[in-house]
Amino acid sequence: MNGSHSDALVFFGATGDLAYKKIFPALQAMVKRGHLTVPVVGVAKAGWNLDQLRARAEDSLEKHGGLDSAAFEKLIGLLRYVDGDYQDRATFADLRNQLKGAQHPAHYLAIPPVLFETVVEQLADSGCSTGARVIVEKPFGHDLASAKELNKVLLRFFDEADIFRIDHYLGKRAVNNVLAFRFANTFVESFWNRNYIKSVEITMAENFGVQGRGAFYDQTGTIRDVIQNHLFQVLTNLAMEPPADYDSDSVRDEKVKVLKAIPPIDEKNLVRGQFRGYRDENGVAKDSRTETFAALQLEVNTWRWKGVPFFIRAGKCLPATSTEIFGKFQKPPSLIPDNELVQNHLRLRLNPEVTIAMGMMGLAPNAEGFALQTSEMVASHSPSADEMDAYERVLGAAMTGDSSLFAREDYVEEAWRIVDPVLRGNPLVFEYAPNSWGPAEVERVSPPAGWHDPAAKGAFFVANEAA
Length: 467
Ligand code: BG6
Description:
Elements (H helix, E strand, L loop, with lengths): L7 E5 L4 H16 L7 E5 L5 H14 L5 H10 E5 L5 H11 L5 E5 L6 H10 L7 E4 L7 H14 L5 E4 L6 H11 L2 H6 L5 E9 L8 H5 L2 H19 L8 H13 L9 E6 L17 E7 L9 E7 L6 E8 L15 E7 L2 E10 L8 E10 L8 H11 L5 E2 L1 H11 L10 E3 L28 E2 L5
Parallel strand pairs: 1-2, 1-4, 2-3, 4-5, 5-6, 7-10, 8-16, 14-17
Antiparallel strand pairs: 6-15, 7-11, 8-9, 9-10, 11-12, 12-13, 13-14
The protein binds 6-O-phosphono-beta-D-glucopyranose (BG6).
């Protein structure tokens, strides 16, 4: 299709959990900013009518982010509803009616992937796919083979340029800020490579469990839920080369190159954990071996990174909610005894606040002799309530046809290739206590001198803070 702005937004799964928690708040915010003025058609099979969907939207906004009366009234005015089975042609005939001649609708599939094929076929049969875009929610497949199959199905009916595979981490400003930090600052280039960096770790910790999503989570696990997608996006931002241009394809080309340089994960470089109590969650098998925690080590065999281990750790029911990158430098060839030297570090916190911190050694104030301590130089920013949320950003981008915040076909397949070998079989999963940093076995997959604890308060003396 051409570069026209989508003239309708259709969202399948309108009565579902994602719509309730993320989509209605994003739609209201888009309306408030004047970014959404076209009809919004919710589709679901719930036996509901438009008034019930409106009530659901109101409830969603009251619980998630707050209701803004003026924007909500406008959103309600744009909202339409189609109720019906996705197998039934009549549902799509009704959708066509509700689209009232829209030429470039964007169809957002906020539904389980098993339904994607049925829905896109029905969209094509009913003529709703002509001139349209399709936005697909994660998880994009279950493994490499299913992702390839899904790509095949989508590409049968849509051009790659009209397919928008959601990874909401691409809509997070803090994640994109990693690229700004790397490519807008000369000094970073001098050290951000294998000559100075000893290891890189990425931690995504959540201090809550599966929040009622047991049935989904038990089929998914941490590797599929957040590592193959969200954390690989963070990883590629950290490891990629500067793109030839800032258009979406040049940036995505560089990300794909990073993934291609990563060998598949070896079981010996992976530790899985499951928090105690997980098996009592609704929808979770009593003998489940699904991981709620994973720590792994990867190689990035590019010119820049060969020999530098990358560690990724993610989990539920950990002691903090935080996403943080921690790069450790080599130690200097100093005359100071090695055991007194702590390596410098770069700490990039992406969540809950955005922080860039450089850790360095200096003399400890108020101490005798040559006692050293690590101080951090910190630049930090807490997101304000009116900043765009990731979902608002990605939906807005898809409707203008901007692919830069979405995963390309080759990217998702490469990402699945890396994790594919460890997704099968009946893996070993170690139990861990809620509110701990995973099972003790994680020691086996740990950066030199251990994982940095993103929850440690006052871990470093802050160099640029007034005394
Ligand atoms: C989702 C996962 O994709 O991302 C969740 O399914 C996870 O399990 C969430 O909690 C994290 O997103 P955010 O934006 O809160 O970091």
